[in-house]
Design goal:
Largest sheet: 8 strands, parallel, barrel
Structural class: alpha/beta
Strand content: 25-35%
Order of helices and strands: EEEHEHHEHEHHEEEHEHEHEHH
Oligomer: single chain
Number of domains: 1
CATH architecture: Alpha-Beta Barrel
Helix content: 25-40%
CATH superfamily: Aldolase class I
Number of helices: 11
Length: about 250
């Protein structure tokens, strides 16, 4: 079995790391360059950088900040926020990103997934999905969770896979920042439906939540922010715990 991945996430607003609850009430969480360097040293498997207001504010991701973070880490680096065209992708890859995460732009223009996969390879294209349960269905949101769309989670992620997305980063908006665990039932359904890796996001509060995301949610990777930023969970201790639960981990 492939090793499961632990991925800290830097949510960036105005050049600083922030974290909220259900995408609201953001608070400062530290310098992104210092956090990135620390997570790389602690044995994180990857790092995700999301410029969470770039799409809403209609601007590009902070390329200079991406360069500074990339220069201080030696793990795969995914960058998202404000990416609307191939030129944006190329600019960020040249700045040190290994993968690109797209969300709002892909919903507005699904062909962007095809273009990124064709030009740079599927491994570069991560489809981020911010979704919320409404009745019996999960609906996707854009602009950092501000705008509900008519796209449904399962059909949209399947379409993205067919277009060439290499991974799905699924964030349950209902679970985000609440620290009561991931949306494991939905994660498991996604993982069974798709042949590409699924990254769990939204809800980590304790080590057992990561275990459940892998064993119950069948996720390939688990992403978290505040529990790492505020020192509530240390990555080396988390990985040791997960290894003891017979979940394969890459140890440093």
């Amino acid at each position: 079995m492939l090793a499961k991945r632990i991925i800290p996430c830097l949510d960036i607003k105005d050049g600083q790391t922030v974290k909220g609850i259900n995408f609201l009430n953001l608070r400062h969480a530290g310098d992104p360059v210092e956090l990135g360097r620390a997570y790389s040293a602690q044995g994180a498997d990857e790092l995700v950088f999301l410029d969470i207001t770039a799409s809403y504010e209609g601007r590009k991701t902070f390329v200079e900040l991406v360069k500074r973070i990339a220069a201080n880490i030696d793990i795969p680096f995914t960058v998202g926020g404000g990416i609307n065209e191939l030129g944006d992708v190329e600019r960020l890859l040249n700045a040190g990103a290994d993968k690109i995460s797209i969300n709002s732009a892909a919903i507005r223009n699904p062909l962007l997934i095809d273009e990124i996969a064709q030009h740079f390879g599927s491994q570069v294209c991560v489809l981020a999905v911010d979704a919320k349960r409404c009745g019996d269905s999960w609906f996707c949101y854009l602009n950092g969770g501000r705008v509900k769309t008519d796209k449904k989670l399962f059909s949209w992620t399947k379409e993205a896979q067919e277009r060439g997305a290499g991974e799905i980063l699924f964030t349950s908006m209902d679970h985000d920042g609440v620290k009561t665990g991931y949306a494991n039932d939905t994660l498991a359904m996604l993982s069974e439906q798709l042949s590409i890796p699924v990254i769990a996001s939204g809800g980590a509060g304790q080590k057992e939540h990561f275990r459940d995301a892998f064993l119950l949610g069948k996720a390939d990777a688990a992403l978290a922010a505040s529990v790492f930023h505020f020192g509530e969970i240390k990555i080396p201790e988390l990985k040791s715990y997960l290894c003891a639960q017979n979940i394969p981990m890459r140890m440093v």
